[in-house]
Amino acid sequence: MPNVNIVKVSFDDYDEEVTAEPQVPCSEQEVLSVLNDIYIAVNNDSYYCPRDERNYSFFSYFNINKKEQDYILKDLTYSNFVAKIKNLNENSKARKLKGYPDEYLYVFKYPCEIYKRDDIKLIFPQKVMIYIKINNRKIPNKIVIVVSFHENRK
Q: For residue 125, which of 38, 62, 80, 113 is within the disulfide window of CB 3.0 to 4.6 Å?
């Protein structure tokens, strides 16, 4: 087992579908470019993971730490890619009103077993399909990467 409490499992072990809407076209090269940006951001500790209610709930339930987030992000490949979608949240709408271009999210799936733990010991592994949204916002002279992790909603 790696030095984290998460073990990637095969997609074949899951019959769970991961979907994302509204989808927009996206080339394999674009996804590979996003993955490259992610790897660099993890190595430089320069991505942001907001502690909104869904993120916080996921992290606290499984007691997932920064090291495990980094492990998952660096383990993503093109085969984990689900879709590129238009960001329709309130922040994106406000940015649009200010004249900024549309924002897009890159959605990935990550099937794994998480060894849920408490403060003392590891507990039995639980199969989880993680739904990861990445906002790879490029602004002049800077890339801002915002990542959110959620348990997939079936």
A: 113
H helix intervals, 1-126: 28-43, 53-62, 66-75, 90-97
Helix or strand (DSSP H, E) at 117? strand 104-117
Residue 1 lies in a domain: no
Fill in the amino acid letter for 48. Y
The boundaries of the domain holding residue 25 are 6-151
103, part of any domain: yes
Q: Residue 122 pairs with which residues in a beta bridge?
A: 117
- 48 CA to centre of own chain: 11
Convert the pLDDT of each residue in 34-55 to its tens digit: 999 999 999 999 888 877 777 7
Q: What is the pTM of this model?
A: 0.84
**Domain total of the chain:** 1
